[in-house]
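Entry:
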Amino acid sequence: MSRTYRSQYKEKLISAEKAAGMIVSGDCILYGGFLGRPIDFDQELAKRKDALNDVLIYLSTSLLPPPATAISDPSHKHFTCNSFYFSAVDRKMSDNNLMFYLPCNLHESQTFFEHDYFPPFTAVVQVSPMDEHGFFSFGPSNVYNFTVCMSAKTVVLEVNNNMVRVPGGSEDAIHISMVDYVIEGSNPPLFEYPNTANPSEVDLAMAKLLLEEIEDRSCLQLGFGNLPDLLGKLICDSNLKDLGIHSEMFCNSMVELFDRGLVTNRYKAIDRGKIGFSFCLGTKETYEFISGNPLMASYPASFSNNPRTIAMNDKVVSINNALEIDLFSQVCSESSGFRQISGTGGQLNFVEGAYYSRGGKSFLCLTSTYTDKKGELHSRIVPTLAPGGIVTTPRASVDYIVTEYGKECLKGRSTWARAEKLVNIAHPDFRDDLIKEAEKMNIWRLSNKLEQ
């Protein structure tokens, strides 16, 4: 390692306590997203609660441990924490009035910081140790971190020796010359996102329907959850060949897809021979797989999730989850009424990107029903979205909808045809009522006939 880099490192090295001590009332702080959120700095800042007022904190997708600053101040007199995308941790904090949501398409999260939406801010990002060339890797959490650092008035890096180094791509690392302070953290282990538990019959039915739509040389995007993980496992047992991956998230099932030789990335138009992604959540084995692996191409979300980028590859197959869809085909994937569940994320980005991809398709998947706390069954296909329900994917953008009862393409269909197709894949117990509501809403032809 260059003596110059070592010297700069030592000059900029401070404790987490001292770094947190530089924050004053009224400051704005941007934390790194996902696994890039600082742990030690946040805990030290929470200890200073009574000395601070009106500090705004922005982050994305809190993982364990939860942000100490958010937990410490239910009054929001001292800290107000805001997340671009809710994890289960964020959702629970929001339920307890500890976290707010900031609506954001993932591919715009980076460019946010290049505008005047935020006051001058301090960036604090968790990174890997510095290499011999003076660079700190953002590891499994590229997303928006580089631009946050470039746009900040002050840049603080929190080094975690357990953070894996992941090559680019682009904007995957930052040089010691670009930062103001370095904290050597307590090196907490990386949060692990487990493999899918035993899949339900409903998930298995949907996964089999999706498998039928994937062909040789398809380029895959798999979102969060049991269904995408399960589909990955089914693909592993298929005869598909020469698949590619361009995804916002690199997940556990993708490791096996590559190791078994199904994913070669040979026919991708961009990053040929590589897997393009923006962040990774997985098991320890998954993190070990991406560590220093030349296969990986780590990108900011402004590139990985840009519909123009996505569309450059042929046969893009995008698969994401939804919570509710109404008979107008408006898709809610992020809230349950007024309750924020997740976020807009990259769903709309990949729906649009797949549409413009030659031979591309996007699939929004949801179980036909859910059971509430009282044990009552409800349809996820509804006449109109629940009050407070958020339209994540507008009806004009929707391509395929999938439930355990089938899959229907809504693109290019009028309102009555969409209503008919959605009733086709609704739970049988709710179809008659949905037809009656569609008639009241004037989106049901008298000649409509459901497929038997």
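The radius of gyration is 23 Å.
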